Amino acid sequence: MGTEMTVANASSAARTEILRRIRVAKGGTSTEAAAQSGWGHVTREYRRTSALETEALLELLEDRLRDYDAHVVRVGADDVADAVSKILTTRGKRRIVVPDGLTAEWLPEGFEFVTDDGMSATSLDAFDGVITGSTVAIAVTGTVILQNIAGQGRRAVTLVPDYHLCVVKATDVVETVPQAMEKLSGTSELTTTFFSGPSATADIEMTRIKGVHGPRHLDVILIM
């Protein structure tokens, strides 16, 4: 996992540098020149603090997630494994892939949990689903954010399986997008995935189709 993350981080840094050079070559501004550029001085008055108390904040996140067809349950820190067992049993899921570093106490007995070791997309597609942790969740948009770190894993692990069970800590829930961006600022070079509910898209005739770009089904366990 350590070698994989080193390679991923190097690739992300290289991509950032390539995009910076393209902007400069096209007459745009690089990150370093932002302070001297016109847009660098634009006043940004985004709200960066929450206006909601904790309970209202969590209710807003739940409401948004459910509106996007996700199923949400709240549990205490000692009851995660029991919740995982009940959810997987209800869903009929038995063989689950998990990222390296996922909290072992979250995994109940009676299921086959297999740690990802860089599996191919074909191998990942053979699993019933995936369980991961999360980095941060945005209440106002119902968005959960994952990064390529221990317990969350590679992007492919969360996009290929048809089912995703994601564990979110209440302490990692923020109200607004700017708050989330601030929390991500220290790890902005990591591969990062944003999702709001199960994968869904619509064609030109507005026919909604699930599962095209990721899991068709999403369950969220919110740890209080």
UniProtKB/TrEMBL annotation:
Pfam families: LUD_dom. InterPro entries: FTHF_cligase-like_sf (IPR024185), LUD_dom (IPR003741), NagB/RpiA_transferase-like (IPR037171). Residues 126-223 form the LUD domain. SUPFAM superfamilies: NagB/RpiA/CoA transferase-like. Gene3D superfamilies: NagB/RpiA/CoA transferase-like. PANTHER family: LACTATE UTILIZATION PROTEIN C. This is LUD domain-containing protein. It comes from Edaphobacter dinghuensis. The lineage of its organism: Bacteria, Pseudomonadati, Acidobacteriota, Terriglobia, Terriglobales.
